[in-house]
Amino acid sequence: MTDVTNGAANHNTPAVLVLEDGRMFRGRSYGAVGTTLGEAVFATGMTGYQETLTDPSYDRQIVVQTAPHIGNTGVNTEDPESRRIWVAGYVVRDAARRPSNWRSEGSLDEELARQGVVGIQGVDTRAITRHLREHRTMRAGIFSGSDAERSDKELLDEVLGSAPMEGSRLAEEVSVDESYTVEPGDHGWEGEPRFTIAAVDLGIKSMTPHRFAERGVRVHVLPASSTLDDVKAVGPDGFFMSNGPGDPATADGQVALLRSVLDEKIPYFGICFGNQILGRALGFGTYKLRYGHRGINQPVLDRRTGKVEITSQNHGFAVDAPLDGPTPAPEERYGRVEVSHVSLNDQVVEGLACLDIPAFSVQYHPEAAAGPHDAAYLFDRFIDLMDSQKTSQSEEAK
Ligand SMILES: NC(=O)CC[C@H](N)C(=O)O
């Protein structure tokens, strides 16, 4: 929830970050002035703040940047990953006073103010991060201007009255209302599209359809509430579910949709929320991590190849699946499944691969915006999966 009471920030305007356990960090306003509430999380990316801010998976989250200097390259119109900034609030140590970059079209401070995003600067982000890491991510508020002058108790009560992330259903809030198509020809692909997929937007980042399109895949992006008929209407060779905000335990509609798609033997690839939905469709549970994984420097082991990837991540929940070997999926009709990828920081499940149906997913972000490109091979793996499914279906038809 954001309540902006007056205009752009003046850098001497007081601001305070209040955590739900009563810890307070006083600083100065950044971006819009007013009040905002959300879940405080930390992100460890050294670069790519525009991609972070515009990632719809950050809806309702107050993002603390561990990189101390933010805003130095300004903002441009090329890097956003969606139509707007989604973070509920923004916490930085040292905000750049003046942007300097050949692509810069304006200052981050002004852009945050223009979009009504309340932030705070001049706080000890290292101390905040350590606190969240030791205690867990928690509800928080940023209060600036006259709102920062209210009593500590009033501010804390407001934070304690806000909704927790557990149980939040947010994908519908950030998804598109109308479907649209991303054409390979608009992304450098020459010739006819090779495949067509239906991609459900649960908070999709624009780089994801781009990565498909540049490989010759036509992408029909569909709203979060789409049905099996909507999916089949585009004649898909494959099905995709995107990243997105909120608690995967609330995504019953999408779990039911994915099950019906898997029952049709349409190849599936999921990213992040799409990985959690595959986990649930197979019958596993999900749970909230203590402080999550957010940043563009997260090491993951591909257990099939033994290779380590440095990945971009943004998740607060994870799939609860057994790490040892292929196991039968709790939903028996889907056969065996294995945890294909695992976090090298804490052994959290980072990928699932089905052995008896054409479906796999990862918890991290191979679209790499921002972030390293190590995991781009996953888009090719999905193309190979669609290819072999098409071949085996045409052989069956003979
Ligand atoms: N980026 C994502 O898709 C995040 C998925 C889910 N909202 C989580 O926090 O774990």
Automatic annotation (TrEMBL):
Pathway where this protein functions: Pyrimidine metabolism; UMP biosynthesis via de novo pathway; (S)-dihydroorotate from bicarbonate: step 1/3; Amino-acid biosynthesis; L-arginine biosynthesis; carbamoyl phosphate from bicarbonate: step 1/1
Function according to Swiss-Prot or TrEMBL: Small subunit of the glutamine-dependent carbamoyl phosphate synthetase (CPSase). CPSase catalyzes the formation of carbamoyl phosphate from the ammonia moiety of glutamine, carbonate, and phosphate donated by ATP, constituting the first step of 2 biosynthetic pathways, one leading to arginine and/or urea and the other to pyrimidine nucleotides. The small subunit (glutamine amidotransferase) binds and cleaves glutamine to supply the large subunit with the substrate ammonia.
A Gene Ontology molecular function term of the record: glutaminase activity
Subunit field text: Composed of two chains; the small (or glutamine) chain promotes the hydrolysis of glutamine to ammonia, which is used by the large (or ammonia) chain to synthesize carbamoyl phosphate. Tetramer of heterodimers (alpha,beta)4.
PANTHER family membership: CARBAMOYL-PHOSPHATE SYNTHASE SMALL CHAIN, MULTIFUNCTIONAL TRYPTOPHAN BIOSYNTHESIS PROTEIN-RELATED
Superkingdom as given in the UniProt entry: Bacteria
Xref: HAMAP family: CPSase_S_chain
Binding site for L-glutamine: 57, 244, 246, 273, 276, 314, 316-317
SMART domains per the UniProt record, alphabetical: CPSase_sm_chain
Span of domain Carbamoyl-phosphate synthase small subunit N-terminal: 13-143
Listed EC numbers: 6.3.5.5
Name of the gene this protein is made from: carA
Segments of this protein annotated with the region CPSase: 1-193
Name used for this protein in its record: Carbamoyl phosphate synthase small chain
Family: Belongs to the CarA family.
Keyword Nucleotide-binding tagged: yes
Pfam families attached to this UniProt entry: CPSase_sm_chain, GATase
Keyword Ligase in annotation: yes
One Gene Ontology biological process: glutamine metabolic process
InterPro entries: Anth_synth/Amidotransfase, CarbamoylP_synth_ssu, CarbamoylP_synth_ssu_N, CarbP_synth_ssu_N_sf, Class_I_gatase-like, CPSase_GATase1, GATASE
UniProt keyword list: Amino-acid biosynthesis, Arginine biosynthesis, ATP-binding, Glutamine amidotransferase, Ligase, Nucleotide-binding, Pyrimidine biosynthesis
Positions annotated as active site in the UniProt record: 272, 365, 367
Span of the signal peptide: none
